[in-house]
Amino acid sequence: MRTLALLAAGLLLLSCASAAAQATLAYNSNGVAVSDMTLTSTGSTARATFTVNTDRERSFSKIVLKVRDSAGRNYDFVHHNGVDISSSQTFSGSRDEFPDGTYTAEVAYSLDGSTWVRISPARPFTVGPHIADGVGLYDFSVSVSESEVSARYTIDTVRPVSFAPLTVAVRDASGNNLDYGKRFQMVDGQQSFTASRALSPGTYRSWVTYTLDGTQWTKLGTGKSFTIPEESAATGSDTLPAGNAEPPPAGPWSLAFSDEFNDTALDTTKWDWKYPRSGDMAYSNWNNGEAQRYKQGNIAEKGGSLSLTAKRESTTSPTSGRTFDYTSGHPVEALIQLPVRLHGGAHEAA
Amino acid sequence: MKLPKGSGFWPAFWTWLTSEQWPPEIDAMEFYGDNTSLLYQTYHGPNGSDGSRVSNADWTADYHTFAVDWEPGRLTWYVDGVATKTLNEAPALNMYLIASLAVANGARAPAPDASTPFRPR
Fold first, then answer.
1. Rounded distance, CA B58 to CA A202, Å?
2. Domain count, chain B
3. Is B89 marked active-site?
4. Distance from CA of B50 to the nearest CA of A (A)
5. Annotated catalytic residue B30
6. ipTM for the complex?
């Protein structure tokens, strides 16, 4: 009976996996699906790429990207006639001199040359205008996975722009600032960004914003709302595995780096206590939500154990004058070589 | 490792590039002391971030071992010797290893509050 039950469970898993794969591609009744659709624009030129998938060999009379402006005017581009697709084919194209505005685009095909079938949800995209700083935002999307939200977007600049920073703004229902994905960097032309963070259950509003001078913020495009669901009770690897054994090395491993922490202080031939870079950023990733300044004195080693201690004590950077409310410890491997296995020994914190 | 309990404590066991390029970043373990039942295993790669959570009644109650097997094209995360996450993706760049105890300022994780058990100076 136990064997039978296991077999049934296995079949159930197989059928679930197969249904999920089909759902991802969303084949229509002709066995046709669109995937990997991207829409971007630079200035007044729009570009599109998409993949047409078929569940068996198909002959298409026409494949087109239907594009309409908000008044329903036709701006179609990417036209293909007489295409045979055995499983998938990727199409791309561009069209110049789009008036500034918001458009929708969807892939459509005709098998017989007269009847049209739409195969993708209509996707909005925006052409210009680049706002005052020459910065444009395209393809801002937000997705939620369990308690983590992820944002993807593309920035387009008409000239080099130094962001200080560019960030994904998030506000909860009470208006609390939960911004993430800060980028202090220059963008020259087009660059895509991704960022993610964990949030508590609730409803949020998110948008892309930037500042060039650290004080005046400019919001790009329109924002999006999303919800982090209450945690589900049981998912996957949620129980702690039994045992406390070393992971057994599979294959030809050799020891490249190790420290048993049996000295009386951090072995500085193996570890540094700050990042290998200059300025305040050697002591703290302060632009990534960190409030501490690392100090060598907050690291102690004794009897096979390394302790990192966080303290509520204010320190002021001698170089920048920036003040940090906390100190802590931060051993950084100093050999700068590739250890093929990362393995945590014991370190006691707090 | 023995992890600390308390809002604002943000320990991690992770890798970074000397070139300051980001991504990639391998987070063998990342933990926020305000929620002692979850720890995070993440690869921040060129195509985005792939993160998983591992739950336990209280991660701060005992010592635990955290490991990542870093092989060409494959990463495997372990907690206490048991594989918890695999990814068919891996950076082919030299990275260095960091064991950090950061203090969050509220932007990415809750900041310390009055109950956070800092040791005396």
1. 24
2. 1
3. no
4. 10
5. yes
6. 0.92
